[in-house]
Write a structure and sequence with these properties.
alpha+beta; 5-stranded mixed sheet; 6-stranded antiparallel sheet; 11 strands; Heat Shock Protein 90; Beta-Lactamase
Length: 401
């Protein structure tokens, strides 16, 4: 089961920047008029970010949620990518009828459906054929709500059940979604930590990168906490603050991408990168696995050999740029160019998408900041050319003399 070194987490010590501090303050003020709801949210946060094994923290969080919402049972399901199933990991409630089925394939049952559609599923399970555990209905349960955890793919599904027929009010629905998203991001971060521990042997002597990793863990947890409160605040009340809601969702999804990218960079051992495939084939595989836009690769390094560590950094830089195009550009076509000219190497990623204001985006986009940081690590010169409606071109030129 997942485990966590409590020393790596110091939640709420430093929100990690003026923007995040302001977001947390605004979110706190917005829900301050609902003290019971705010207290419940804080209690769950403290439980999931506390010390101890991950399964115990998830169980405590689920117990607090179920009791706080007056539900009769609750479940946490975790996704297993190898078998493409969601498996029951935590159950709160004394009724053992929920153990009738302890895993569902993606798209199967209400739980698998919530995972595959990335959307909450509500059901009167006495009349919904998609609910596949008849013993739960026989035990007197009537209402079931399954909510996917925010990520792509979702690391799991959170669900609650009631015996008495009832409709969840909007505040309870949004609170349930906020908790699901929080648990999902903590679980996702935990998986990355486990992957990092598995690669610890190759990082002996890379003390600077290890220090960056520790800072990353603190930043992620603090931003996660603030963004979740913002998401919850924006989605409660009579009127949905759609721009704030969408902004919070974007922030949380950006955290996931940034952590995945940075952790790989911290842990990628250059000797593991070297193979018969080489840099070109790795980039080709990356582009082939990106669903949109349509990619073209112009790769010409001649017979030059690049230091393996630089190859790793180049690949990670390409991957970051490709991810930015995929997630933000809305482009139909894009290209990656990697050319060697004398002692100079040029990397350029272009797209015909919606474009952006580089100065405005640079101030708030972690993806672009990651690109600049990687370019600096290579000793390169980064040029970003874009404007609204005019696509984008990002070039990095470096001397390998």
């Amino acid at each position: 089961m997942l485990s966590l070194d409590a020393g790596a987490i110091r939640p709420l010590r430093d929100i990690g920047g003026a923007i995040t501090k302001k977001r947390l303050a605004v979110a706190h003020d917005d829900v301050a008029g609902r003290p019971g709801e705010l207290e419940l949210l804080y209690s769950i946060m403290l439980a999931v970010l506390s010390s101890g094994p991950m399964d115990e923290r998830l169980a405590d969080s689920l117990r607090i949620l179920v009791e706080g919402l007056g539900a009769d049972a609750g479940e946490i399901w975790l996704y297993e990518p190898e078998s493409e199933v969601v498996r029951l990991a935590v159950l709160h409630g004394t009724d053992q009828s929920f153990l009738e089925r302890q895993k569902f394939a993606v798209g199967e049952g209400l739980t698998g459906l919530a995972w595959s559609t990335r959307a909450p599923v509500d059901a009167d399970i006495t009349a919904d054929a998609r609910f596949l555990r008849r013993s739960v209905v026989d035990a007197g349960f009537r209402v079931y709500r399954a909510v996917p955890m925010l990520s792509d793919p979702p690391p799991g599904v959170l669900s609650i059940a009631y015996r008495n027929p009832r409709a969840l009010d909007q505040e309870s629905r949004s609170l349930l979604s906020s908790v699901a998203n929080t648990l999902g991001l903590v679980i996702h971060n935990e998986v990355l930590r486990d992957e990092r521990a598995g690669a610890r042997a190759v990082l002996d002597g890379l003390a600077t990168r290890d220090a960056v990793a520790r800072e990353l863990q603190e930043h992620v947890l603090q931003t996660l906490f603030a963004s979740t409160l913002a998401l919850h605040a924006a989605s409660t009340g009579d009127d949905l603050d759609r721009p704030a809601f969408n902004k919070a969702v974007d922030d949380l999804q950006a955290i996931i991408r940034d952590v995945r990218s940075l952790i790989v960079q911290l842990e990628q051992e250059p000797t593991l990168f070297l193979s018969a495939r080489g840099l070109r084939n790795r980039i080709e595989s990356l582009l082939a696995g990106t669903t949109a836009p349509t990619w073209e690769l112009d790769f010409d390094l001649g017979e030059q050999r690049i230091d393996p560590r630089i190859e790793v950094e180049l690949y990670l830089l390409v991957r970051e740029l490709v991810a930015n195009v995929h997630h933000h550009s809305h482009a139909a076509h894009a290209s990656v160019l990697l050319h060697w000219d004398g002692d100079m190497l040029t990397l350029r990623v272009s797209d015909d998408g919606i474009g952006f204001d580089p100065d405005e985006v640079r101030a708030r986009a972690m993806g672009l900041l990651n690109v600049e940081w990687r370019s600096q690590q290579l000793g390169g010169t980064l040029v970003i050319e874009s404007a609204a409606g005019a696509g984008a071109r990002v070039s990095c030129t470096l001397s390998l003399a």
